[in-house]
Amino acid sequence: MDSGARSCRCIGSRLRQRRAPGGVRPRFVIALGLPAAEAGTLAAARGVDLAGRAAPIGLGCRACTRVACLQRSAAPAGRAAAGSERERGVTAFGFAGD
What we know:
Layout: E1 7-15, E2 27-35, E3 81-82, E4 94-95
Antiparallel strand pairs: 1-2, 3-4
């Protein structure tokens, strides 16, 4: 996180076996987030170095100003996405003004 706080997130999804009316099988998403210092007792955290190098997490693509982010899906607020047919950077597109 930009604040320097360290957290652990566990996310999973479950597909219900029985179909709902209309033939749709509901999918449920479960997310758990807590401070890394408290995550050591989770089974999902076994074997994970919670004190080691962490992946930086921004505030969301529209609020984040990090340029070389592999997970970026949108331009920062106030900046237009700019693409090139001849060049490719870390992300699939750059931004006007870079």
